[in-house]
């Protein structure tokens, strides 16, 4: 990520920010020790625990426990303290004029402030600022003086208070809509966002007093977050995808935002994902069918892998538990440029690994619906002697125009997300042959988790025009509100991601998803799905083929 | 360090009791019975102290898990092949203390040397949907897990059932605590150790447990 940071755009964005710059050279030695466990010499960092357990390289990097924000974490009984400069060096304030640091749950406050020398001793010898031993979990690191200085310098730059998009009275958020997004879903999403922000801002605002030490303890007054106005900026992108990045940079320069909340895409979200990663902006739970799967990225969180998860579910079903393909050949049908294209590519790659022949029938983006039927007939002629599966990555309009079932298609797989889930207009004759991927909780099971958001919409007169998009948007908003409540006045952007990753699994009202969980290095909160068939030739009743599958 | 909290002292007393009580059915000792001193989390703890040992009787639930070689297995079958069991609960994206616990398992295997193939090390995922068998294999490779150490996943429900059975379920993976369990043979009670162990601790506990068998 850091290597691809765009110098000009980044510079412009940085110049537009109020307050002190937070820039750390992207490849500084301190940063590479902290995040990657690589020393200035290029050698791996090595940490040793008492009794000889050695940890090296990325496994030994500080970030594993102290987190990217440097603000630590709490797991069970264990609290890993913050190691940002301000928490390490902050004096035990006696002076009532000194500002108070925001509360962090994992703070070990009962010690003298560190100095550069005692901090080096802590890292090398495992003794705190008063010479007491640190936890067994904390390894000892034999850093050279140069590496130590670089690391300490990095810790001093971590999580400084000024964060773009956060003022004393306002939190700025953007939501991003790409030009190919469905207009109905766009309206439904914006209705929910706008109402949520209105609701959030109902409480009377008055500037909160600057938090000062009470003299009793330096942290006693720091647990509260100033109530800030939530301001929504809707960034509507236009034109071809190649121009989106420049538009986003321009929006950001004009309206610095703290995070990107929800959002809506057609088949391509990648430029937005990259924009968020490169500008270190949290990008929270957009409504996208094709998220970006990049294990090493940090700032983008998604509800699921969308159609790419459906591709995995179909692959798992075709290959079976023992990787013995149930179909000798697979024919896929999708429209060029739609979400089915990357999904079909992902499925083909996975099936080909196991010796399954995969053909694709690609419909031009603007082709008429009846062309689908013609293409299917051609596809049926390629029928393999060992049996064939047909995979449809199609929208409701194309599905409605499918016509008669082509001869020879043993099993039809249909993308539920693209095809309209249980309301898909699949012609009756197709239904007994069709398995649909359903990477959500089943309709008869999710009701209780939808009651609250749907009631919330009803009370606020929000028309339900795209139920899943709207309830997902509501879920994204309420997760953000919950997590900000936990963060006191600590707005470090990585901390927002870390807190969401930790908090999510405790969420009960999870809308369309049976449950959601994240952790460090996890970006996709719902990890599985069902494969279902229709109970009857008509109607929307579904029957799951088996349990929830995690491919 | 206060004398009554000395790890060796407590280990000894627990194992004496374990030896005395072996064969007595349905024996459950609360952790507080055998733990003289608890650690205050605010005071930085010295290395690997704060361990709490207790002897417990657990009913192994008849739950099906998926082993890291993709095989669906029954938990009782995995535990009842006659070998002593050393068990913990981990998840692969846990970056704080699971890697430490897994390093200690790896070092434990190494130190047992030729005796390693007489033990069965088991690590059950508490984040089973993320931890597919493939991810578990990758995790096991990261710690150079030997042949006698298997990792398990399964459905969310199966993992929670296993966690509850061994009293390690705390409502979610982010609330987990460091617990190591060991049992000398099928039908025997379990030695439960809460807190971090060093490889030395684990080897010593294991050898004492076998000696008391």
Question: Would you kindly provide a written description of the structure presented here, covering whatever features stand out?
Answer:
By secondary structure, chain A is α/β, with parallel strands linked by helices. Chain A folds into 3 domains: 23-157, no CATH class; 170-304 and 446-506, Response regulator (Rossmann fold, 3-Layer(aba) Sandwich), CATH 3.40.50.2300; 307-438 and 530-544, Response regulator (Rossmann fold, 3-Layer(aba) Sandwich), CATH 3.40.50. Chain A contains 18 helices and 17 strands. In chain A, the strands form 4 sheets. Chain A has a 7-stranded mixed β-sheet with strand order 12-11-13-14-15-16-17, sandwiched between helices. In chain A, strand 3 and strand 4 form a beta hairpin. In chain A, helix 2 crosses helix 6 (145-157), helix 10 runs parallel beside helix 11 (340-352) and helix 17 crosses helix 18. With 213 residues, chain B is an alpha+beta fold. Chain B has a single domain (3-36, 49-211), classed as Glutaredoxin. Chain B has helices at residues 7-21, 31-34, 75-79, 98-112, 133-142, 156-165, 199-211; strands at residues 52-56, 64-67, 72-74, 85-90, 120-125, 149-153, 179-183, 190-194. An 8-stranded mixed β-sheet of chain B has the order 1-8-7-4-5-6-2-3, sandwiched between helices. In chain B, strand 4, helix 4 (98-112) and strand 5 form a beta-alpha-beta unit. In chain B, helix 4 packs across helix 7. The A-B interface holds A 49-53, 55, 59, 63-65, 73, 75-80, 108, 110, 128, 132-137, 321, 502, 505-506, 515, 517, 519-522, 527-528, 547-548, 550-551 and B 41-49, 70, 91, 93-97, 99-100, 103-104, 107, 127-130, 132, 142, 155-156, 170-178, 196, 198-201.
What key phrases describe this protein's structure?
heterodimer; A: 551 residues; alpha/beta; Rossmann fold; 3 domains; 7-stranded mixed sheet; 5-stranded parallel sheet; B: 213 residues; alpha+beta; Glutaredoxin; 8-stranded mixed sheet; 18% strand; globular; disordered N terminus
